[in-house]
Amino acid sequence: MKKITYTEAKKELEAIVFAIESGELDVDALTEKVKRASELIAFCKEKLTKTDKELQKILDDIA
Length: 63
Description:
84% of the residues lie in helices and 0% in strands. It is mostly helical. The termini are far apart. The protein is elongated. The longest helix is centred in the C-terminal third of the chain and has 36 residues, at 27-62. Belongs to the XseB family. Keywords: Coiled coil, Cytoplasm, Exonuclease, Hydrolase, Nuclease. Residues 20-47 form a coiled coil.
């Protein structure tokens, strides 16, 4: 996956969900979009987990 930000990943994921829900994808495109959505979800989850750990460390250092 190319270097993207969390915000970019979230926007792309929202666009994929909209396209799926609106029924504008054919079966071939659907497979690719679901695969990409899976990659984006994994990226976002990793980013959120890393951010949570960093924030927790900062809060622990303050206390």
